[in-house]
Design brief:
The chain contains ten helices and eight strands. The protein has 203 residues and is an alpha/beta fold. β6, α4 and β7 form a beta-alpha-beta unit. The radius of gyration is 18 Å and the shape is elongated.
Length: 203
Amino acid sequence: MIKAIIVDDHQLVAEGFKQLIDNNKTADVVAITGTIAAACPLIRDHQPDLLMLDVALPGSNGIDALPQLKALCPHMRVIIITMYAEPAVIRQAIDAHADGYLLKSAAPGELVEAINTVMSGNTFICREAKDIINGIPEDLPAITLRERDILRLLANGYSIKETADRLCLAFETVHSYTKSLRQKLHCNNMASLVRKAIELHLI
């Protein structure tokens, strides 16, 4: 039986995944946790075959943590399970060598399909995520989750100071992020930055 660990900070969601997996007898969920810090010793101890990993976790980003987690168990396959449907996040997960990408809005049958696919050595991307990235340029700039959060607030009309306050960051930090984003997207000002981010479906 495939040994699996679920890392999701929403307990009801994690339990729902576990029940679905149990009902379909696709794997044995040996542990559930809500943080990367707690997941590390569980992975080290259990040496699971499969990790189901959320993106937005307390104090960390699941995609950024992928190399660290895979180093603890090299044979482990990883399915990103998330609400993030932005092309940049999907591309970021693929570039980080995630074995699967499944949106939480996907049909239950796709979870079973995802597990069977990645455990057979192939990559799985759910149908909705495939539709999202189809037609998106291959040279789409790599945008982090923090940069996406900043772009979204700016697009909603918040100033840099207001954005910094809402994200509990220093003004200088957000200003530095926006400067980096303008360079990545080749924009001279904030208005063109927001417009291009929307055109590229980054937010």
